[in-house]
Amino acid sequence: MNWKEMLDKSVVSAKELADVLGEKTDEIARVAGVYPMRINPYWLKLMKKPGDPLWRQAVPCADELSDSPLLEDPLCEEKDSPVFGLTHRYPDRVIFLVSNRCALYCRHCMRKRKVGKHQGAVTDATIEAGLAYIEQTPAVRDVIVTGGDPLLLEDAKIDAILKRLSAIPHVEMIRIHTRVPSTLPMRITEGLCAVLSQYEKLWINTHFNHPAEFTPEAEKALRLLNRTGAPLGCQTVLLKGVNDAPETMAGLMRKLTKNRVRPYYIHHGDAVKGTGHFRTSIETGLAVVNGLRGHLSGLAVPAYVIDLPGGGGKVPLLPESILARDDKSLTVKGYDGKTYTYPL
Ligand SMILES: *Cc1c(COP(=O)(O)O)cnc(C)c1O
Ligand code: SF4
């Protein structure tokens, strides 16, 4: 199946899901009525049993409706939004939403207030307004093209957006944020790559959360993307029951670097309404990161970040390494857990 057939054959209703998986429909229908579901046949085949890491990311769960103290937009993306679908918070870079569809609706999505919904959707007019804002704002050096998933647009549309952005002299970097290499790898076609190869300012950030997402199809997609010349990165979300064990995360980082994808961030789960059941403690996050540094190539170690509520931005967290200090030395914990003295 090509990527469009895959999308067309996606499971989007509780009834269809019951037909293929024999799962109870009432609960899933209730959740999917609030936060859309889409599970395409590629991902469906990778899910093995209820509660496994791929299942948890894709199948609606009653917990999504029971974490009401959390907010829909704790990071206040809307507050820093000069035009619809564009967030300008940091001095030199913007987030630019060009699609609100995805190949799979991740249950942990931090933008689940928006993705897959018709109301408040991205349109040609909102894309045009975003492009005009970027053209008129010389402070913007770096444009994060995201959504939804930008690579669900047609090749010609992607080409047109990249052409406009590339032509803006003050835009030095364009990043595409996409999950299709893991959720719909057949979307990475030769034709799409021919489009992407034309743009020298382009970087591509993917989103993988578990080693089992590295199928032969996904690895082929990454090989094709690597040939476009765009540096590849990955943003992973720390998710309870998916990748919150140090060995799992280390395995994921090894898979990424083996496929020449540089791990960029591990995001601590934001306090977004509908995703509370995926959040771990900070201690769990620090333990996971502790299992990476020193044990793996430095290129396989991303920054572990929390995003401050209210729009404060991202801050990296590191396991404590300085145990004590005096005038002459630091007492430092090494990756092997032993204590060392570092002379000052
Ligand atoms: C994460 C984020 C960015 C990009 O930040 P980098 O650290 O440069 O990747 C830009 N704008 C907003 C609002 C963000 O949340
Ligand atoms: S692909 Fe990204 S934007 Fe789409 S549902 Fe998943 S996390 Fe959200």
Keywords:
17% strand, 12 strands, 12 helices, alpha/beta, 3-stranded antiparallel β-sheet, binds iron/sulfur cluster, 9-stranded mixed β-sheet, TIM Barrel, 31% helix, 344 residues, binds pyridoxal-5'-phosphate
Descriptive account of the structure:
One of its GO terms (molecular function) is metal ion binding. The modification N6-(pyridoxal phosphate)lysine is found at residue 314. Pfam families: LAM_C (PF12544), Radical_SAM (PF04055). [4Fe-4S] cluster binds at residues 102, 106, 109. The structure is a single chain. The chain has 344 residues and is of the alpha/beta class. The chain has one domain: TIM Barrel. 31% of the residues lie in helices and 17% in strands. The chain has helices at residues 3-8, 14-21, 25-34, 41-46, 53-58, 124-135, 155-166, 180-183, 190-196, 216-227, 246-258, 282-290; strands at 86-88, 93-97, 142-146, 173-177, 202-206, 232-237, 262-267, 303-308, 313-316, 322-325, 329-333, 339-343. The strands form 2 sheets. A 9-stranded mixed β-sheet has the order 1-2-3-4-5-6-7-8-9. A 3-stranded antiparallel β-sheet has the order 10-11-12, with no helix packed on it. Helix 6 links the parallel strand 2 and strand 3 (142-146). Helix 2 (14-21) packs across helix 3 (25-34) and helix 11 crosses helix 12 (282-290). It is globular and about 65 Å long. 40% of the residues are buried. The structure holds pyridoxal-5'-phosphate (PLP) and iron/sulfur cluster. Iron/sulfur cluster binds next to loops.
